[in-house]
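Batch job 17 of 40 flagged for manual review because the log was empty.
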Amino acid sequence: MTPVALTIAGSDSSGGAGIQADLKTFAALGVYGASVITAVTAQNTQAVSAIHAVPPEIVAAQIDAVFTDLAIAAVKIGMLPNAVCIETVARGLGRHRAQHIVLDPVLAATTGADLMARDAIETLRRELIPRALVVTPNLPEAAALTGATLARNEREMEAQARDILSLGVRYVLIKGGHGEGDESVDLLIGQGEVVRLSAKRIATKNTHGTGCTLSSAIAASLAKGGDVIAAVQDAKAYVTAAIAHADELAVGHGRGPLNHFHAWWR
């Protein structure tokens, strides 16, 4: 059977992040992608100029349409603009007993614009994090979810990940891309050992959609039957290569996208 993954996220009109990045990632990794759009954004590589939240009844209808026809093997969740949308998605996933949920708690765009209402964070903690198999916060998102200051080292990263783990999620992948130093270190923390994933930090401004791409790559691997640790390791390798080849593209005048199809576009 064809592996199918679903992305529930916002649309990026410039194509580098959100739904567009997720579908590119699914395709690059050999998975059929379906989508539920939660918000329409007017954005490019320089800024987000407008956001329109999709009405909750339309979000719910998209979820029902997809799940009643397609065999969804994994779900990636990205931008959820407000608390009502979070609750709608949580109810929809519950109705259809969705499995292998990867939650990327998107709070802001690469350009800095807020993509989720700040008063919705508690709803996310209560309604969706406990349903997830993996949650993938970057350092600012982990700090916001835990009420802590930005983690300065791996010890503090692990502490914040364990705080998020206590909300009921099975695994937390806390990402160190916003940190400093020659290495970009992510920590995968579950009930057992801490898995440290390190890659050389790549000098490029073209990192638009990195978090979206990583979480959708994890979902793609899970849809194909991979276990969580292997899925995260494979996703980290894919994203690292996509960043390494990002400068081969010439897209926009700001923070450009990753090269999702680097293995084919040479």
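Reviewer: the log was empty due to a logging misconfiguration, but the result itself is present. The two ends are 30 Å apart (CA to CA). Unflagging and moving on to job 18.
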